[in-house]
């Protein structure tokens, strides 16, 4: 069911994407493109009408804003269920493609352990935006709390895919500056790749901040922060635990074992390193997600945003893909084919209607797949073949 559902949603993305590409000014003058668009327009209109969209939600509050996206608390109109919507500007993503890890983020949300990451319900798109619908949780920041106090990780926008050698080779420092490990910064300067050990460094920074209220390498400028990180060496520059700070020896040991050289860093053998560390003595790891949390946030109802820094009541208006299509390269809409997703338990009547539509028009979708490829190669005359096949 999951694979079948994913396939028909991808075909819908493909149909709409090809239609949008052929609607650009550069191609619209072609006679056979015009004929194809005339035929396809009712089908695309019906698809857009039956698919989930932003019109199915009422925006309550904007609770986050970043380089590529905004996060809003929203209520689904037909169910009254409250969700968190992450709304990503397609044009901003395309302009900064190497640092906009939206595909990797979605893969983590789909394949990750549901006990510890925020739950993904829907993803969909329109002409200008990608939208991700997840469970509404309580902040702070990227580490969220559920209403009953359990931790969820909620933002994977800085994820990068490991290559075949188990490393990441990137010339960009992807992530928040204070949490970047030395090996990431060296890789930016051409110093080889890095692996998942960089995440254990970031965990150490996070633990330090939670206990002391600031990050250990904070500086007034990013360049100063990077310099502190890259030149940090255990022994010559010890971690700055302020005198009199109430940090246990076990906590100091844990943090020091995370913020250290990658070859000695805790986590190299996986979770077993943490299970054996004195800081976690007595912890029942197998039942961790079932234990009562030490703190439960005070939440009045599903629309309570008192734990968030509410930014606005409405989304911002920024330059979108539609604004630049006349000067944009061909094929931009095709970059987002395959993005749409609906959790199996949430497949509704309108989506079953779309599936019946797909079955009825299956031969058309096969043709469109070929058109998509040929369109990229600027073989516009293939539209004539497509129209002959349809009729």
Automatic annotation (TrEMBL):
Binding-site positions, ATP: 86
Named cofactor requirement(s): Mg(2+)
GO-annotated molecular function: ATP binding; protein serine/threonine kinase activity
GO cellular component: cytoplasm; cytoskeleton
SUPFAM superfamilies registered for this protein in UniProt: Protein kinase-like (PK-like)
Catalytic EC class: transferase
GO biological process annotation, one example: actomyosin structure organization
Domain AGC-kinase C-terminal: 281-351
InterPro entries (UniProt xref): AGC-kinase_C (IPR000961), Kinase-like_dom_sf (IPR011009), Prot_kinase_dom (IPR000719), Protein_kinase_ATP_BS (IPR017441), Rho-assoc_Ser/Thr_Kinase (IPR050839)
Keywords: ATP-binding, Cytoplasm, Kinase, Membrane, Nucleotide-binding, Phosphoprotein, Serine/threonine-protein kinase, Transferase, Transmembrane, Transmembrane helix
Listed transmembrane segments: 364-390
Family annotation (Pfam families): Pkinase
Protein localization: Cytoplasm
Catalytic activity: L-threonyl-[protein] + ATP = O-phospho-L-threonyl-[protein] + ADP + H(+); L-seryl-[protein] + ATP = O-phospho-L-seryl-[protein] + ADP + H(+)
EC number(s) stated in the UniProt entry for this protein: 2.7.11.1
Domain Protein kinase, chain residue ranges per copy: 1-280
Cited PANTHER family: LOW QUALITY PROTEIN: MYOTONIN-PROTEIN KINASE, MYOTONIC DYSTROPHY S/T KINASE-RELATED
Record-given protein name: non-specific serine/threonine protein kinase
Annotated source species: Sinocyclocheilus rhinocerous
